[in-house]
Amino acid sequence: MSVIEIRGLSKKFGKNVVLDNIDLVIHEGDVVAIIGPSGTGKSTLLRSINLLEKPEKGTIKINDQEIDLTTRSAREKLELRKNTEMVFQQFNLFKNRTALENVMEGLMVVKKLKKSEARSIAEKHLQKVGMGDRLSHYPRHLSGGQQQRVAIARALAMDPKLLLMDEPTSALDPELVSEVLITIKKAAQEGNTILLVTHEMNFVRNVANRIIFLENGKIVADGTPKEIFDNPKNQRLKEFLVKIHMLESADYTI
Amino acid sequence: MSKIFDWRLVFTEIPALLKYLPVTLQLTGVALIIGWVIGLLIAVVKIHNVPILRQLCTLFVSVVRGTPIIVQLYLTYFGIPIALKYYNFYNGTSYNVNGIPSIIFAIVALGLNQSAFDSETIRAAIQSVEKGQVEAAKALGMNGFQIFRRVLFPQAVTVALPSLGNSLISLVKGTSLAFTCSVVEITAQGKILAGNSYRYFEAYCSLAIIYWVMTIFIERLFVYLEKKLSVPETVSTEESCGHTFTPGKTGRALSKKHGQEKGKGKEE
Question: How many other C-beta atoms lie within 10 A of the C-beta of residue B252?
């Protein structure tokens, strides 16, 4: 069973330490949710893993290959990015391409598949996210939820070892959140390895098999949803859960 | 008494002027390509903030935008031969200035002028593409060149097109000054013909008509291109399968099929 090992990941913005020597081991098929107060480096952790941010220190072992996250080698960077895919808060679809073309893009340009192959893979993945009837729609013709589902199809079509999701539902209208969550749940059930930053605690409780509580650049708590939500040991985690109404507080009465 | 204004000549002279239209078009075409290519290079230097080169580019753009095109034509017309003489002197070569066709001087001047104006348009257009899309392309594993070719370029073109069209129109009109580099194009030919007949006003009327028609044609062309390259307003079943790439026959058939299904969906 292959694992993804992140060792000693550190990242500063100026003097502000955002990630402080993070170690994280993710097993294949895991759905790991990262929770925590804003500004604690949740997104930065994700973005450092596929080098959209440049960490100061750290290594990642993926696909039995260890890559230094401070690498300057373009080949290693591309290698890492090919093994990971990202779903963004703002969807970031290519605006000048249809849903189908968006999904085909990586398959054709990066994986160098023939157009017909790319097309059939892309159609398969778009059908899975329930967008099979919107193949020739441009992003501007799709709702936020639909765009995010296309973005998920685009990421999954690349068959990543690790799927990174950076607050995939935060930019959506409330009524569109569930369609995206259902899509993510399906992707999780199909055995994709997912590292997810989200504020949808009820979703996390149901879908994730492991939760990491990140604060001030450190992993403060790490456990199953049961351990985190029902029996939090860490004081800071308790306070956080109270604040987001996931835990009854003693002096909290209406 | 001969006519004060020979309106017939305005039209009968046009064919004689059009004989030199190929020269005007050649000047325009080559200068346009030089302008786009160098303009793109300048834009890339500015976006990536390359030290030294960036300052040089800023200086170049500032000088070109701050001087009249006719002065620039004179500068190249007299400057290139002087540069060549220096080169010959220091390297012991004997390149002949007279061997350079005069159209080259005009093309260099017009092309460089065009590049300075287009560089700003191109830079703004490239920077108008959302950063998020570049990140998405990076995350997919595309390299820098692929990101430029597949993500930035196609979208920047749509943004830049109207301004590039305007700048092309001013280039066409700028070619009328090429006579200063002793290039005979349509305006020069008009002056020559008028020199013989003393019908200057008629010749300039003919020229005005020719330039105007060319400009209308270019305007129309750019409006058409803009429409063709932009993302359609509505989901149309026929065209929706993309201008950015053309799918094969199966693709068209499929997209049609989906269109029909969509139609059905609406009826329900």
Answer: 13
